[in-house]
């Protein structure tokens, strides 16, 4: 770091930063061009949700969110393929254990609230899923080796639940002749809620499993199991 | 003025992250730098979405929301890879 | 008056943000760097709440700072343990 290379890199990055600042400055000077917000707000009543961010995520740009869930799944598959999880932490003492029994249900409750409220106020599947994942992290820190997750077979189902429900809903709307993920008017709100619920569970499970940091089984288990 | 301030902060964060990413070798430091780089980009998008009296644009917000989750999953995968490398090197 | 105060508020927000980022990037102690990174993420969530993006602020606080920080803290702990097993050489993850 203290070498000449660091200085050269620093000089180049500084030049890049100045150039980018100039770009931002000119972009602001040119002024605001047309933006997508007006279209997003105009279409809002048809989507059945009144939080524009949720509408963008699950209605206008459902493909993006579907593929993002697939990215999350792929990352977890990568983590599972890299080796077994390290053993958990030692069991928590009485005070920490008492706090965990209080905090984990609260986290799950808050996650459910954020999921429901996401339709019309800040919140939604990602925030709710993050809270579920945080509940898993807390449980692992308190000594639960599996981070509160169910056994492997159930874990696999939960992890793919988000992508699976998303694709099934898409195929169903295709079957109705509306096109992939084109929700029929009136059904929209409930379809979005169904997808979000599955996505919340999947995101929570995936994040907690990612924190465990390895596949939750050893090779001996698998040869006995499959 | 406020817009330039916030947009500029995004650029500065990106540049700082890029510098640290290139200069440091340990994996965890590179990951922190990468995450700060990403945060700079997210911050720039959020700053662009906010335009004074108009309601902020929800499209960049949704993009950033997606980006945050992808960034964390990439970090988790990178850390798992780093751990596997350490194990294979036998603690070096 | 109000506009000036608001600009001052913005300035404080942005300078603290950049300061936390610099501190997280150059802190010599790896574990402290991770903790500063978590603080940076939480502060970023605050800034985004100011920029009227509460959805994203929630996600950043919970996912970016919370879960990302927890992942990195576990990694930092592992690195420190490995370094002490190696007899303390390279203790802070060895800057090149």
Offer a quick outline of the entry.
Chain B: Keywords: Cell membrane, Membrane, Transmembrane, Transmembrane helix. The complex is a heterotrimer of chains A (226), B (92) and C (96). Chain B is mainly alpha-helical and 92 residues long.
Please tell me about this protein's structure.
The complex is a heterotrimer of chains A (226), B (92) and C (96). Chain A starts with a helix and ends with a helix. Chain A has two domains: 1-33; 48-220, no CATH class. The model of chain A has no long low-confidence stretch (mean pLDDT 86). With 226 residues, chain A is an all-alpha fold. Chain A has helices spanning 4-30, 37-42, 44-47, 52-60, 62-81, 94-117, 125-141, 152-175, 188-212, 219-225. By secondary structure, chain B is mostly helical. Chain B has one domain: Helix Hairpins, CATH 1.10.287. In chain B, 84% of the residues lie in helices and 0% in strands. The longest helix of chain B is centred in the C-terminal third of the chain and has 32 residues, at 58-89. Chain B is elongated. The model of chain B has no long low-confidence stretch (mean pLDDT 89). Chain C is elongated, with a radius of gyration of 17 Å. Chain C is built from three helices and no strands. Chain C has one domain (2-85). Mean pLDDT of chain C is 86; it is low at 89-96. Chain C is 81% helix and 0% strand.
Uncertain stretches of 5 or more adjacent residues of chain C: 89-96
Number of strands of chain A: 0
- Determine the most extensive contact between two protein chains: B-C, 45 and 46 residues
Oligomer: heterotrimer
What is the radius of gyration of chain C computed over CA atoms, rounded to a whole number of angstroms? 17 Å
Radius of gyration of chain A: 22 Å
Indicate the mean pLDDT of chain C: 86
Q: How many structural domains can be distinguished in the coordinates of chain A?
A: 2
Distance between the termini of chain A: 51 Å
Give the termini distance of chain C in whole angstroms. 50 Å
| Series of H and E elements of chain C | HHH
* Structural class designation of chain C: mainly alpha
Strand content of chain A: under 5%
